[in-house]
Every structure is written in structure tokens, then in C-alpha cells.
């Protein structure tokens, strides 16, 4: 029997297990997924844990309940991928051969990459919210905060869901008002970018929101180290930002497995063709989700769109046909802005987020790059969509894998 191995059982890996189980002849192919973790987290929910909007039980399910029954789940870690031999070596020393490999190893925070981040202030007055542990640990200190300098910091790009730190700013403003201490708090957003977002139209809209909410933006800031004693972030250019409570997004990195296997970039992301997701190291390896080096958002929606197109290219590859350069970098996400309002952006490699109607031109019902209550409810509804459609690789009606320009107000200059 021929073998397909998926390394990684997060969002992208689980989706691909479903796609493959539906589209392949399971009398000819065995589909194996390698991942030691017993639980699966809805990672967009991490944002809501510190504010008490979600409990951890709201965002976690047993991994086995999400996988197709036909998938062979190998509950161990992977030590090395050996492309020349078409072999995966497991942490118990055994090896498993494959005819085709899908890498879906995701990304994780690496606070150790910044001097002082894991010093004596770690999980005391320095927290992340990009992990369940960090987001849960932050709840008490945030809700008990009595005022001072609240600093939200992005260490470097790329990161999972680039708008999440902005959402944390907006929700902090909203909840500090509800808790009666907003007037005692200075909120500062520190970013290595030259503004609130990477694309001009969205950066202007989001920057305007930051200004309206009285949130200071410190741009082009690259942290050299964190001084735990003086409670300062110190930049390479000598700038210093004081904090009483620091909420940081540490460097995001790909899995160390990629480094051990010898074919990742400096951050352990896997170089791929950005339109086919075929790995550059060998043609029978494909990569999906946060594990890739594609220049688009590392977000669940991206993995979903990638998956719908990747399964077609995998079938072409197995049939000896030429791959289609079909993935266009499509990403969309809701941006929670506080006060039970939100925004929505939809974009790809070539088209930045712009205003308009989504998903149906002229009808919506959602507005792009416009703050309103409908987008807030869309953000909350996404959790149901995630558990019932995205991880199970079910198509979302009216939303194509390739970005549509219908309903978007695109200028002549693009």
C-alpha cells in the first residue's frame, strides 16, 4: 500500500487528513498523521482568554475527535525528515517511509530569542497571549491591573495572525474602560513595522482607530533586550519604553524539526513555491499553513484556502500532471475592535485590504474595512465555523479559495 504522511496535527494537518480521506482511494493509500499532542486548540480563542470572554474549555477538543477514522494517527514526535530517502524518523528511533509527505508543523513562540524576555518578570509582569499557558496566566494580572503603562509589543515578523496584537490593544482599551481604570492607564503599541499594519489602506484605517482610542503607536522599533529590573524594553536604536505590564508577541518560529532536517530558513519555515506549496527541497513534499515561508498571513483562513487548492495539486502530482500555480495568498480575518464592534479584511499577495462588501458584491452582508457590530458577531461565530467546517475541510459557501475582487473598492492603481 502506498503511503502519505502528514507531519503535524494542528489546523492545517487535520484539514489535509480530511481532504485526502475523501479524495483518495483508501484501498491503495494509507494516510498517517504524526503528532504526539492529545488536544487541539482553537488558537484564535487565545485572544479572548485574558479578558474572560472565553474559558480554556471553550477552545479545546480531543485531537482524535477531529480526525477522520480512516487516518492512522501516530502519537509520537518526529525527530527528522530525510528527503533523500523518503523517510521520517520518529522520536522512538523507528522510521516510516512515504511516497508523499505533507509538512504541517505550524509555528510557535520563541521568547528565548530576545534577551531578558524570560527573565524574572516572565509570567509575572511579562506575558504572551499566543499560547494557552500565556493567555491563561495573563488573565489575573490583566484583570487586577490598577493602572500605569500597559505595553503591547510585537518583536518581529512574521507572526501568527498579524492583526491579533492590534485586537489586544482595542480590547484592552474597551475592558479597562469597563473596569474603570482606562483613565489611569497609558496603552502603548510597539511594532517593528512602520505603522499599525503592513498595507497602506488598512494601516491608515487601523492607525486612525488607534488614535481615536488614545493608544500610542511606537513604530520601527526593534527590541534588543528587556530590562526586568527597570521594566523597560530597549531598542537597538537606543529608545527605551517603560512598562508596568508588558504583553509581548515573541519571535515566531517554525518547528525545530525543520532545523534538524536541514531544509528550513533562518526561522525554521520551509521554503516553498508560493503558488503550488511544493517544497523546494524535493518535489514529493508539500507544505501547508504556518510551516511555509509564503508571504501572507499565518492564519487559519489561509490554511483553509491553501488546503482547498493543495488537494487538487496533490492529485495532479500523483497523476503525473503539471501543478497549477493556483494559490494566490488569499487571507481574510475579522478584527475585534472593542465595544462589540469589529472589522473584516480580505486580501491576497497582490491585492491589499480595501473597503467593500463581502462575500457577495453589493449585498454583503459583511462590510470590509469598516467597523460595525456585524463584524463583531462574525468574529464570535468563527469559532463554530472553525470546529465544524474549517478543521473538517468543508467548503464555506460563497467564499472561494482564490480571492474574489467582486464587491471591493479597488482603485485604478491597485
Summarize this structure briefly.
This protein is α/β, with parallel strands linked by helices and 414 residues long. The protein has seven helices and 24 strands. Helix 1 runs parallel beside helix 6.
- What do we call the CATH topology of the largest domain? FAD/NAD(P)-binding domain
Strand arrangement within the widest β-sheet reads 5-2-1-9-20
- Tell me the name of the CATH homologous superfamily of the largest domain: FAD/NAD(P)-binding domain
Residues in helix, %: 10-25%
- Total domain modules: 3
Largest sheet: 5 strands, parallel
Percentage of β-strand residues: 25-35%
Shape: globular
End-to-end separation in angstroms reads: 49 Å
SS class = alpha/beta
> What is the number of helical segments per DSSP (H or I, 4+ residues)?
7
Average pLDDT reading:
96
What features would you highlight for this structure?
FAD/NAD(P)-binding domain; globular; alpha/beta; 7 helices; single chain; 26% strand; 3 domains; five-stranded parallel beta sheet; 23% helix; 414 residues
Amino acid at each position: 500500500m502506498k503511503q502519505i504522511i502528514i507531519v503535524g496535527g494542528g489546523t492545517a494537518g487535520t484539514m489535509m487528513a480530511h481532504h485526502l480521506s475523501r479524495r483518495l482511494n483508501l484501498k491503495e493509500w494509507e494516510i498517517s498523521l504524526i503528532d504526539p499532542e492529545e488536544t487541539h486548540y482553537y488558537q484564535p480563542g487565545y485572544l479572548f482568554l485574558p479578558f474572560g470572554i472565553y474559558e480554556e474549555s471553550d477552545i479545546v477538543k480531543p485531537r482524535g475527535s477531529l480526525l477522520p477514522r480512516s487516518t492512522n494517527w501516530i502519537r509520537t514526535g518526529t525527530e527528522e525528515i530525510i528527503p533523500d530517502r523518503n523517510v521520517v524518523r520518529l522520536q522512538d528511533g523507528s522510521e516510516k517511509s512515504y511516497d508523499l509527505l505533507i509538512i504541517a508543523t505550524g509555528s510557535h513562540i520563541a521568547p528565548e530569542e530576545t534577551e531578558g524576555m524570560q527573565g524574572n518578570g516572565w509570567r509575572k509582569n511579562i506575558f504572551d497571549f499566543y499560547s494557552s499557558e500565556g493567555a491563561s496566566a495573563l488573565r489575573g494580572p490583566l484583570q487586577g491591573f490598577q493602572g500605569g503603562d500597559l505595553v503591547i509589543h510585537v518583536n518581529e515578523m512574521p507572526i501568527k495572525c498579524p492583526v491579533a496584537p492590534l485586537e489586544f490593544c482595542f480590547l484592552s482599551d474597551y475592558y479597562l474602560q469597563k473596569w474603570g481604570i482606562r483613565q489611569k492607564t497609558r496603552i502603548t503599541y510597539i511594532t517593528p513595522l512602520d505603522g499599525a499594519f503592513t498595507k497602506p489602506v488598512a494601516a491608515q484605517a487601523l492607525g486612525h482607530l488607534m488614535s481615536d482610542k488614545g493608544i500610542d503607536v511606537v513604530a520601527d522599533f526593534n527590541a534588543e533586550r528587556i530590562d526586568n529590573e527597570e521594566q523597560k524594553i530597549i531598542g537597538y536604536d537606543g529608545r527605551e519604553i517603560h512598562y508596568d505590564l508588558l504583553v509581548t508577541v515573541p519571535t515566531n518560529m517554525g518547528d525545530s524539526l525543520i532545523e534538524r532536517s536541514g531544509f528550513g530558513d533562518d526561522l525554521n519555515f520551509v521554503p516553498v513555491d508560493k503558488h503550488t506549496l511544493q517544497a523546494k527541497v524535493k518535489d514529493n513534499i508539500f507544505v501547508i499553513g504556518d510551516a511555509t515561508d509564503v508571504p501572507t498571513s499565518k492564519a487559519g483562513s489561509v490554511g483553509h484556502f491553501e488546503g482547498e487548492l493543495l488537494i487538487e495539486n496533490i492529485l495532479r502530482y500523483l497523476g503525473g500532471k503539471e501543478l497549477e500555480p493556483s494559490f494566490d495568498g488569499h487571507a481574510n480575518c475579522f478584527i475585534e475592535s472593542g465595544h462589540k464592534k469589529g472589522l473584516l479584511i480580505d486580501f491576497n499577495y497582490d491585492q491589499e485590504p480595501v473597503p467593500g462588501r463581502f462575500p457577495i458584491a453589493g449585498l454583503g452582508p459583511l462590510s470590509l474595512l469598516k467597523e460595525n457590530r456585524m463584524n463583531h458577531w462574525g468574529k464570535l461565530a468563527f469559532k463554530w465555523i472553525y470546529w465544524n467546517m474549517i478543521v473538517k475541510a468543508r467548503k464555506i459557501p460563497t467564499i472561494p479559495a482564490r480571492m474574489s475582487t467582486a464587491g471591493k473598492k479597488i482603485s485604478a492603481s491597485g
